[in-house]
Write a structure and sequence with these properties.
380 residues, alpha/beta, Rossmann fold, Oxidized Rhodanese, domain 1, 2 domains, eight-stranded mixed beta sheet, five-stranded parallel beta sheet, 17 helices, globular
């Protein structure tokens, strides 16, 4: 599949890169990428992949543009408010690059249609914002052997990784089950810095291009973490789990399931996620501290956060934990916390892999402590 004179001019800055060149650009032209969600993450990812010359882009979304979307969903304009996100996104992408093929899927991705939709694409971008979709996309990608380029955003924090790549771990290796229903608020409840999805979505687009071109070191087995307030990137490594339900040595999931039901975790039924990443409530920690029990409180936030509010624990930012883990005593009862419990959950998983069998995560983090235990503590 050759390049026309117009395409050679359009992609000239790619063609002079030794890692891409004419051969690489032809690979991109012959490639196909499915973008799930035309929102905050899907917007920048789709625009940059279209501009890069990926030959066929599929978009899945069934929502309409809301005025509150425009603060971060840059693929849409004010004129699109009240109209289909797919229609709006397709028009914008055609304007960016009329040379590529665009395939709209204006319906909800479900267990009944996911395999048929995903099967026709080389790589998948997960730009969704809910747990049922993330597990559905992961499982479908594993079953079909398609890389799942993942991103998520929360307030001022973002994550990116590549799941289900050949030989690499999947989303379930890291999160075997979803958190209890309502534990993690969405953007409408928690808010999100408008520029954050552009950063994470662009990282997802970068990973897609690397996978399609076969260059660089993709984020396989690595979770990239961004704290936008301090503008610090950190990384958490994880391995493929031999016990994973979908990609392990003896998978128990060989077909897609009802993911809405799977993610509807009853509050009176402990999930296996709690067994994988054990948690302690702020109330229980308060009781144990009042009893003067010997507990090491490990704070994995950034120093500026510690200065704003803290539980007087040992401060080791998550990004420094792999290098400083020898400073900790694996025999001690250890409660790990961050702002809301996301970073500390990753830290607990890492510590348990290193033999810290008494490490547990503080559910809800210092923010929940401020709300439910100490209202005088500063919230941020």
């Amino acid at each position: 599949m050759g390049l026309s004179p117009e395409e050679a001019q359009r992609y000239a800055r790619h063609l002079i890169l030794p890692e891409i060149g004419q051969e690489g650009q032809r690979k991109l032209k012959a490639a196909s990428v499915l973008i799930l969600g035309a929102g905050g993450l899907g917007s920048p990812a789709a625009i940059y992949l279209a501009a890069a010359g990926v030959g066929r882009l599929g978009l899945v979304d069934f929502d309409v543009v809301d005025l509150s979307n425009l603060q971060r969903q840059i693929i849409h304009s004010s004129d699109a408010v009240g109209h289909s996100k797919i229609t709006s996104a397709i028009a914008r992408l055609h304007a960016v690059n009329p040379e590529i093929e665009l395939e709209p899927f204006e319906f909800k991705l479900t267990s009944a249609n996911a395999l048929d939709v995903i099967r026709g694409f080389d790589v998948v971008i997960d730009g969704t914002d809910n747990f049922p979709s993330r597990y559905l996309i992961n499982d479908a990608c594993v079953l079909l052997g398609k890389p799942d380029v993942y991103g998520s955003i929360f307030r001022f924090e973002g994550q990116a990784s590549v799941f289900a790549a050949e030989g690499g771990p999947c989303y379930r290796c890291l999160y075997p089950e979803p958190p209890p229903s309502g534990m993690v608020p969405d953007c409408a409840e928690a808010g999100v810095l408008g520029v954050l999805p552009a950063i994470i979505g662009s990282i997802q687009a970068t990973e897609v291009l690397k996978l399609l071109l076969g260059i660089g070191d993709p984020l396989v087995g690595r979770m990239l973490l961004l704290d936008a307030l301090s503008m610090r990137f950190s990384e958490f490594k994880f391995r493929r789990s031999p016990d994973c339900a979908v990609c392990g040595e003896h998978p128990s999931l060989t077909r897609l399931i009802d993911y809405d039901a799977f993610c509807r975790v009853s509050e009176d039924r402990p999930s296996s996620m709690s067994r994988v990443i054990p948690e302690i409530s702020v109330q229980e920690l308060k009781r144990r501290l009042d009893r003067k029990e010997e507990i090491l409180i490990l704070d994995v936030r950034e120093p500026y956060e510690y200065q704003m509010a803290n539980l007087h624990g040992v401060l080791i930012p998550l990004r420094e934990l792999p290098e400083r883990v020898t400073e900790l005593d694996s025999s001690r009862d250890t409660v790990v916390h961050c702002h809301t419990g996301v970073r500390s959950a990753l830290a607990v998983q890492f510590l348990r892999q290193k033999g810290f069998g008494k490490a547990v995560n503080l559910a809800g983090g210092v923010d929940r402590w401020a709300v439910q235990i100490d209202p005088s503590m500063r919230r941020y």
